[in-house]
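Dear U.,

For the methods section draft, I wanted the exact inputs and outputs in one place so we can describe them consistently. I've listed the two proteins in the order they'll appear in the manuscript figures. Please don't edit the token lines directly; just add comments below if something needs changing.

First protein:
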Amino acid sequence: MGATERGLGILIESFADFLQRLFEGNGNTEPSEKELEKELIAQGNLRLKETLELPFSKLLIKLKKINTKELDRLVVFLYGKMINDKSYSVKLLERTIIQLINFLDEERNEFSLERNNIKNSLLHNQ
């Protein structure tokens, strides 16, 4: 009986690890600022600073050129700035993040659990 219980425990633990990797990913989900900016410049000639300075209508032109994965990384990065770095206007960051998420939800087919969680968190706080 003890071997069966251990086997079941290992199976449950393996399944829990699988689910965690499925929803969180295997790698580092917190993008570094330099890596992210390099990808944004390469794909859409967009600098991180511009995401907060440009009106969204002008930003939209550049966003359309950038793949969904990098835009999701941008959402996570900006949300991290909003939570951890008080040198930026929280309202400005929040508005930019919501606009970016709405763009991704409307224009792209890929689903991101992390993006959805951030959206729900922001909408819940309003």
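Second protein (the one for the lower panel):
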Amino acid sequence: MTRVFRRSQFTASALLALLAATAARAETFESDYTSLQDCAPAPHLKLPSRTIEQGAFRCDGVAGYSVYVVDDDPRSFLVVERGDKLYSLEKPMVGAFAPGDFPNVVGAKKAEWRLDASGKAVGLIVRVSYLRKESGGAASALMAFDLRGAAPALIGVAGANEEARLLVDNAAGSVGAARIKR
């Protein structure tokens, strides 16, 4: 009898875990978009590692966020502002590319913000252009960032909008390293 109880207790626990996981995935997300073009010049941007005196532009965000486009020739990257804190995305944005690919967000027209049902921003998706060092050809990729943690973190890189949205929507706080696939 003890064996039967343990088995049904295990089955009930597994069923509850499955239902909880299904409910978590059933959460709905929506997108809001903000422009990364014609943004206001920022006089200087003080990051923990350095101060950028020129080439930074502050763009509106959503749900308490702003985003800066930093044109640090020949590369460019984003800085996310939440409240009074700045989070540089330089390392994950540049690090996802092979040396010599020169990632660039200056030409990106908009940022896609993934919002949960309460309107809270949970993710950021942005298109990054780059040059392939070995072929010299232009390419682009969508970088998906998780905004649910203490600091924005790269979730992954996608080739299509829906794939990038799924990366954010399914992240649920789990973040892994990503590199551009050739």
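Candidate sentences for the figure legend, describing the second protein: The longest helix spans residues 2-25. The radius of gyration is 20 Å.

Thanks,
Y.
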